[in-house]
């Protein structure tokens, strides 16, 4: 069983014990607001989404003034992605899919800030790598139309996760990937026609796959195993105690019933 799954089960079982002992942090509440706004957009409730985003802005200002929980770069990324989301919900000329893309971008940014492991943007691996594979196939078959179409689709998807990637990934690594993408996009005809230039496609695919693999690894950090073991012990003790209390209660009821019959 995957370590992450074990941890999730343990946390779920402990929720009745711990959920009320710790208050949700302000930044987590902001993260939830971003998710709520995205759900409203999916339901075509754009006005409600904008109200949530406006409320987010007010709350974000309060949190930033009080605690300064974000770095300068994170603050800039959140602000830009939030502004794009607000504009998308307010602009009637923007179609539904583009609204979803822009608000999703903002949602992924907030999650990237709050998530310690496997941020949501890594869930975009499948659509991104699928489109990339079709793009590469079009290159090798010399199909210009499909190459351009799939490249544009890839660029659109990459744009959605790009701000959140910048929060979780080293600058040097982002720049390396950006350089390859910019080259392929700028020199489309050459990439399509020249085998030497097509090596950039292979290199970019390897870079992206490695990034997704590392960011969404299934194995838990070795330092977390003590948490798994100790949490498991707590669960066993808790369930044992509950069982013992239930047993004692049933015995007492049985004694009281016997006395009543005498």
Domains, number = 2
In angstroms, what is the radius of gyration?
25 Å
Give a count of the beta strands, DSSP E runs of length 2 or more: 0
Biggest sheet layout: none
Morphology: extended
Helicity level: over 70%
Class per helix and strand makeup: mainly alpha
Number of helices: 11
The topology string of helices and strands comes to HHHHHHHHHHH
Strand content: under 5%
Distance between the termini: 55 Å
Average pLDDT value?
Answer: 81
- Ranges with pLDDT <50 over ≥5 residues? 1-22, 218-242
What does this structure look like?
The model is unreliable at 1-22 and 218-242 (pLDDT under 50). This protein has 11 helices and no strands. The chain is mainly alpha-helical and 262 residues long. Helices cover 82% and strands 0% of the residues. This is Sporulation protein YpjB. The chain crosses the membrane at residues 224-244. It comes from Cytobacillus mangrovibacter. Keywords: Membrane, Transmembrane, Transmembrane helix.
